[in-house]
Prior knowledge:
Layout: H1 6-9, H2 12-18, H3 30-34, H4 42-53, H5 61-67, H6 75-79, H7 86-101, H8 105-115, H9 117-134, E1 135-138, E2 143-146, E3 158-160, E4 174-175, E5 181-185, H10 189-193, H11 197-209, E6 211-214, H12 224-229, H13 232-249, E7 256-258, H14 261-274, H15 279-288, E8 292-294, H16 295-302, H17 305-310, E9 318-321, H18 325-331, H19 335-341, E10 346-347, H20 362-365, H21 369-384, E11 390-392, H22 396-408, E12 414-415, H23 418-427
Helix pairs in contact: 2-4, 4-7, 8-9, 11-23, 13-15, 14-15, 14-18, 16-19, 19-23, 21-22
Amino acid sequence: MMSKTAQEIFNFGATTDECIKCGKCIPVCTIHNVNADEVTSPRGFLDLLGAYQRGNLELDLNAKAIFESCFLCTACVEACPRSLPTDMVIEQVRSDIGKKFGIAWYKKAFFLLLRHRWLNDMAFKLGWVFQTCGFKIQADIDSMSSRFNLPMLRADRLLPSLRKTSFLNSHPENISNGGKRKVAIFIGCLGNYNYVNVGNSLLEILEHLGIDAFLAKDQKCCSAPAYFTGDFDTVDYNAKFNIEYFESFSKDVEAIIVPEATCSAMLKIDYEHYFHDQPEWKARAVALRSKIFMATEWLQHHTQLEQLLASKKKDTKIVTYHDPCHAKKMQGIHMEPRNLISKNYAIVEMSDPNSCCGFGGVTMQSEKYHFAKAAGIPKADMIKKTNADIVSAECSACRMQINASMNYVDAPHVFKNPIELIAEALRD
């Protein structure tokens, strides 16, 4: 797929013509498994995109609803004999949708926060102060549920709880652990404001390994939420800032490690896709790729962590591992977290760890949450059948979605990022 030129990839008509209608994408398509209609299938999306580019399809509200129903899980790309980039062309058309219909005010407000960390810091701090007024807190799973039934905020839905102080604001920017090696950390928004123990655990691991940490406090959101929604103005602003910022310190660190699959994929892969028509910025994004790693990927291949874990005692807890779409399908990362976890925990595989959890992005988590819920419950049932104590995935978006889905099926599993499990093993 990546051997194609940008012009070829974003020529919807050419991509449509290349589809041989073999149907291998149908069984793995997340939305088609929820909404069994040929229109909401990879083949359907490609046919409609081709018609749109040829001028035979009006981008009306019906077309908008169809193109916004894709989870962008990339399962179809993985299954396709020709690796047709269905996700990439849908991301592109969502920009046209945003320009024609505008972006909902609450999404625009959210994306504004993602542009300005000081505003985000203020909003989350205020949210923490008042969260108990409107939400019941479940501290054991870092979640909360609404006290009231509201549109898109039903009482049975779990959301990530807020923290008083963000991860980045809880530590100095430079942390010395011996000075022989140094890495930068890109933490991601959910890890920074909600699941802060992921970052704290990563710092613990680096301390054990004697590796200095640079927290890169000026980092902005990777802009995956804006990219998947079609707000390309926010993507352009944040991506260019991050690239320039990474360039300023990349020579001083071995790697930029990211304990989040979606953030890592956005920085490493989707920046290149987004800048397909801006050659200078595309080249700069590509030049940084060799520095960016998912956390477990870098820790396994570039440190002695595996050997260190092997010297620690085994835990009795059983773990089942979910493969985030942006880890396995986009980056090929799936054995690394398992290799590290298995040193101290027994792993039992669910029936299909590669199936999408159903998070699907901002639109899927708001006005189309009924699709996210429908996709999430089968994954929760799958996890429940393993009888594991803990479900793990290196992705906070998956964590948010799986916690909510497990609540619907009344399963008491605890979710932990593999980084958290590794840190716990090292404490013994």
